[in-house]
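Quick one:
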Amino acid sequence: MDFSGGLYGFGLPFLAVLTALVFVHELGHYLVARWNGVRVEVFSIGFGPEIFGWNDKAGTRWKFSLIPLGGYVKMFGDANAASMPAEGNDGMSAEDRAVAFPHKRLGQRAAIVAAGPIANFLFAIVVLAGLFSFVGQPFTPAVVGEVMAGSAAEAGGFVPGDEVIAVNGTSVARFEELQRIVALRPEETLKFTVLRDGVEVQLQARPARVLRPNGLGEEHEVGQLGISRSGTGFIRHDPLTAVWQATRETFAIVDQTFTAIGQIISGARGADELGGPLRIADISGQAAELGIGTLIYFAAVLSINLGLINLFPVPMLDGGHLMFYAIEAVRGRPLGERAQEYGFRIGLALVLSLMVFVTWNDLLRIDGLVNFVKGLVT
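Output:
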């Protein structure tokens, strides 16, 4: 990574993207909470000491805080921003209980918690739909132009003119989708359905593992089939088609993310590909340099990943709360306060450990740091 661009090179695009995504996420919680009659005490962009803020007529304190790496909505009846129930809730008056989050029905609490990640997914669809309507979407037919000699495609029986319509049973509409599927599956035998002279033909190929630049100054191991497209295309959609294509793109990104996570867990992909705030800042700056369309697309991808991460069943995250609510639904009563407290402590430890790990990965990508660390220990 190269941060020579300074604040204007990567800092401002990063803060703009992150602030927008955090606002959308927390706004989802806020709107559904207010819709269910919950009093919201604080809506914060960032953590730590308040920089500036104001109170609205409903009594909510809207504020910007010093550390801009996240945000939270604190609802009445919660002890803190993590929505742990406050002590003394049982002694509330009937009026206070009516607007306290912990005293809402299970379904209402679950809807409020789930609203944040859902808002991120909806935001991504809206942003991508706008991008595909006004700028356009890369849309190249999945037709083989050339087959590289000695490639996996040649070994698998591909010939120029073949149109790939499915991979492992998943339909393919664009060459870009085919690239994405193959790139995530190096050295994995894939089953292709192609149209050849109007007849469906079944082929198998094992993409080679190669290093390929990602366009942001880094190289990643990806799968390569060894074919080229027959042409390039870029199409602007009408609003309804744009929404449909944006929804398909969102689901494709979710599938891509889960596939990559599964490969990291299984050891097929290195954990050093995980990135943290520094890498996000770096990519934000580089995306901004490539143009507003690239930055908007990156913001949509980041929004989807923010929604996914928050749905992981880890206490402290939205998914952890939903896991507790699922247990409550099965048991017929909430988990005890001590069990919840231990759960939140474990969740906090996991989240902090992950942050340390991905930040260390980020630091190792900074030019010269690896050699500096080696010099300290040798």
